[in-house]
Design a protein that fits this description.
The protein contains six helices and nine strands. The protein has about 260 residues and is α+β, with helices and mostly antiparallel strands. It has a nine-stranded mixed β-sheet.
Length: about 260
């Protein structure tokens, strides 16, 4: 059985791990949102807000997913939790960390297509988090390769959408990797590659997954993560619009 638990403490990620925030006041007990779907026998996946008790598991998962890059330090993650403890999620399989998603709130007019991961996330420390904004920015999602294709990514994305609705945010924006682009870079631009993925001519696991999750393709960002050799530094800008958005509040009428 897969259960979503939301509200508690959270975590984000470092720019070398990044791809394509809700308010720190969310400190209620981690409450279950209900079953999502069944997995294999004896398999129990829980998605909830990240807490300090998950730090070691997250760092170990980083080591396995990114063996050539040092994981974040405990102090780095603790700082992320202090800055924004409500928008980050962890996926647990039988008590072990198998996935994570991080996000922050930004004023989107400050960024648009002209930004990179380091800028929008404050180098992963979320110093750019602004509760007055109306855009939930997806800074990172990663899932243990050994348990992919079991719906864990979908649950992490669902947790983000739920929080977006609860906070009455206008949208979720993220910039997703294009990990297959390096195989086509000599023959086409990154934008053409992304369009061919959308048309079904090329299979890209990240962008296709995001499209299935209801996101729309907005364009390609150049130099988003220069260290991302598979994507040749590019990323696909994507957006999900909150269908329940009720308009601006008196608190921040001009912020986007």
């Amino acid at each position: 059985m897969i259960t979503l638990n939301v509200c508690g403490e959270n975590i984000d990620r470092h720019f070398k791990y990044a791809r394509a925030s809700l308010q720190a006041q969310c400190r209620k007990p981690k409450a279950a949102l209900g079953a999502r779907h069944r997995q294999g026998k004896n398999m129990s996946v829980i998605v909830r807000n990240t807490g300090a008790e998950d730090i070691d598991g997250i760092r170990e998962l980083q080591r396995r997913i990114y063996p050539t890059i040092a994981p974040w330090s405990r102090a780095h993650i603790e700082q992320q939790l202090r800055v924004f403890p409500a928008g980050q999620f962890v996926a647990l399989l039988d008590g072990n960390v198998v996935g994570s998603a991080s996000s922050l709130i930004v004023i989107w007019d400050d960024y648009g297509l002209d930004h990179n991961w380091r800028e929008v996330t404050g180098k992963g420390l979320f110093g750019t988090h602004n509760p007055a904004g109306r855009t939930l920015y997806g800074a990172e999602v990663f899932v243990d390769p050994g348990v992919r294709r079991r719906g864990i990514g979908r649950l992490l994305y669902s947790a983000r959408r739920r929080l977006c609705r609860q906070m009455n945010l206008r949208r979720i924006i993220a910039a997703g990797r294009l990990p297959g682009y390096h195989r086509h870079a000599q023959n086409m631009s990154a934008t053409t590659y992304a369009m061919k993925v959308i048309w079904g001519d090329i299979e890209d696991p990240v962008l296709r997954f995001q499209l299935r999750e209801g996101f729309q393709f907005c364009g390609v960002i150049d130099g988003y993560i220069p260290e991302d050799d598979e994507s040749c530094g590019h990323a696909a800008l994507i957006v999900w619009l909150n269908p329940l958005y009720r308009g601006p509040t008196r608190r921040s009428p001009s912020h986007k």
